[in-house]
Design brief:
Strand order of the largest sheet of chain B: 5-6-7-3-8-9
Structural class of chain B: alpha/beta
Number of helices of chain A: 12
Shape of chain B: elongated
Radius of gyration of chain A: 21 Å
Number of strands of chain B: 13
Order of helices and strands of chain B: EEEHEHEHHHEHEHEEHEHEEHEH
Strand order of the largest sheet of chain A: 1-2
Strand content of chain B: 25-35%
Oligomer: heterodimer
Largest sheet of chain B: 6 strands, mixed
Largest sheet of chain A: 2 strands, antiparallel
CATH superfamily of the largest domain in chain B: P-loop containing nucleotide triphosphate hydrolases
Shape of chain A: elongated
Chain lengths: ~260, ~325
């Protein structure tokens, strides 16, 4: 080139708002490198399955719908694992904002929508790993159910956890903290409990049970177990997932738009 | 206060060139504080411009608007004739920020790989690693890099899309002397390829040594604009010292009346004249008076800086 530019050079603009597989690959690699995230998403859920009695003789021989009680436990902890994986992937935006990385990304062609899409896909990939590992441990350790129940349970646990990807994003934009997951840990445990993932909700009083059915983990849990229990599709549970996903997504969009005007 | 500043046109540039940066009446307020106050500035392609001013002068606020990170309350920003966000998305302008903007859990090479993936057009990562002197630490985690290494990484990220304009916001804060020198020689080598560079600094020596043009800002306004030498003369003038045996008060008063003379002081047989136009004073002293041993000294950029940025000290 000559020493002084006399015209502005023609430059191309990346397609898909800068969405790239390299970015996605590095995002997934970052999550896999994070020891804390790995323990909470890939070790703890199958660990809980074993701890809560997945291997117990009684549960293996006690039938539940189209399978045994061990399968019931396995599905619950698969949902729990996907929930943790999705929330932490979404909430990683809080760390990135705290580090100024979000601001750095705004000095690139990357469109905010492509950034969010990358975050959600990353969440879904890690969520799939979490579901897969719980199902693997379950399959090796006493869970039995019909093929349809395996497929529907796995797919719903995986895809339904999108409600928690949006929850994580909302919290990530709401809480300007590097330690957002430490704040969200107890919240997620409570949501899992109210969603009937740790213990069946039958143990709760009627009022508490009604209240629990409106919490965000309840819908995914109920739908994921529908194939096993063979008790039909619960419209209320579908509504639960749809409404919470919409609310969290709206919250994330609202906080995100405030974020871009302020930074 | 309307004042015109000398505009430096870089050699070889035609007037038809689209300015790299054109700011018109730029104003930004944060609550009751006016950070940028009707700032006008044009930067031509190929210029290396220092944006000099004390902390809180409005440097970073202005840079944020040039990069499209914030919007001005009043005024317009054009970067190569486009909206800032469009220029950024086309890789025409990149920036090296003072702190932050890096992920500690990626390696140096991964950070560049990721940044490169977001642009439509970039230089190869390996080449940029070499140019920023990062090849040896390519596989090091960013969190384990020193401040100087992280700054070179930010510079490498800024080089990737081959921008026409690089903006550096106080890029050498916290670096030691050696790291600063190495950093600036990399920037300078790069600017010689024709790239436009705008850097904010509060180090006077950096502005003096590395910029073709200094834009001095104070309280959100441009208070001086030109070469370092010109700003020194404009703000503080030069000091002409001469030996003049038997100089009288009346003769001193005559000197004071010369155009551009700010101050005259007599110390025995020595006369000290402070003036914006030192040449005229020297010519007068040597041709019409018996003065001899003439010395002309420039007051430092620091004096100029203080004179122009201290409230109440502006002429």
């Amino acid at each position: 080139m000559t020493a002084t530019a006399t015209t502005v050079p023609e430059r191309r603009f990346p397609p898909l708002g800068g969405f790239s597989l390299t970015f996605l690959r590095l995002e997934i690699r970052r999550l896999l490198r994070n020891r804390r995230t790995m323990v909470f998403t890939l070790v703890l859920p199958p660990g809980f399955y074993l701890l809560f009695g997945g291997l117990s003789d009684g549960y293996q021989h006690q039938s539940a719908g189209n399978g045994n009680v061990s399968a019931y436990l396995m599905i619950s902890f698969a949902v729990y694992g996907a929930m943790i994986a999705n929330t932490s992937a979404g909430a990683s935006v809080a760390v990135e904002r705290a580090l100024g990385w979000s601001r750095q990304l705004r000095l690139t062609p990357l469109d905010p929508a492509a950034y969010i899409a990358t975050k959600v896909i990353t969440a879904m990939v890690v969520g799939a790993m979490s579901v897969a590992i719980v199902f693997l441990v379950g399959a090796l350790g006493g869970a039995h159910m019909s093929t349809e129940a395996w497929i529907s349970g796995g797919l719903v646990a995986w895809l339904g956890a999108i409600v928690f990807a949006t929850f994580g994003l909302f919290m990530g934009y709401l809480l300007p903290s590097e330690n957002v997951m430490q704040l969200l840990g107890p919240v997620l445990a409570l949501l899992a409990l109210m969603g009937g993932l740790f213990v069946p909700l039958d143990v709760l009083s009627h009022t508490l049970r009604t209240l629990a059915s409106f919490t965000p983990a309840y819908g995914v849990g109920t739908l994921a177990r529908a194939g096993l229990l063979g008790n039909g599709v619960d419209v209320g549970a579908i509504l639960n997932v749809v409404v919470w996903t919409a609310l969290f997504a709206a919250g994330a969009v609202w906080r995100f738009s405030r974020d871009t005007t302020r930074v | 206060m309307t004042q015109t500043y000398p505009v430096i046109t870089p050699p070889g540039n035609s007037r038809a060139t689209v300015p790299a940066v054109a700011l018109r009446g730029l104003t930004k307020r944060f609550g009751s504080v006016t950070a940028v106050d009707g700032l006008d500035l044009t930067i031509e392609p190929g210029e290396v411009v220092a944006f000099l001013g004390p902390n809180g002068a409005g440097k970073t606020s202005t840079i944020d608007m040039v990069l499209g990170l914030t919007r001005p309350d009043v005024g317009t920003v054009d970067v190569f004739g486009m909206a800032p966000r469009t220029a950024v998305a086309h890789g025409l302008v990149t920036a090296v920020m003072q702190t932050g903007g890096l992920l500690k859990d990626l390696t140096v090479a991964e950070t560049l790989e990721l940044t490169a993936a977001l642009f439509a057009h970039t230089r190869p990562v390996a080449e940029v690693l070499g140019r920023a002197g990062l090849t040896d630490i390519a596989d090091r985690r960013v969190g384990k890099c020193s401040g100087g290494e992280q700054q070179r990484l930010r510079f490498a990220m800024a080089l990737l899309p081959e921008p026409e304009l690089i903006i550096l916001d106080e890029p050498t804060t916290g670096m030691d002397v050696e790291a600063r020198r190495a950093f600036w020689s990399a920037i300078r080598a790069d600017a010689e390829q024709g790239r436009t560079v705008l850097f904010a600094t509060h180090y006077l020596d950096e502005a003096d040594a590395y910029a073709d043009r200094i834009v001095l800002i104070s309280r959100g306004r441009v208070v001086a604009d030109g070469t370092a030498a010109r700003i020194k003369a404009q703000a503080a003038g030069r000091l002409v010292t001469a030996t003049w045996e038997g100089v009288s008060t009346a003769e001193a008063v005559t000197l004071r009346g010369l155009p551009g003379v700010q101050d005259v002081e007599l110390r025995g047989d020595t006369v000290l004249v402070r003036a914006a136009d030192s040449d005229a004073v020297a010519r007068y002293l040597l041709t019409t008076t018996p003065a001899r041993d003439l010395q002309i000294t420039s007051r430092g950029l620091e004096d100029a800086f203080l004179a122009l940025t201290t409230p109440g000290a502006t002429r």
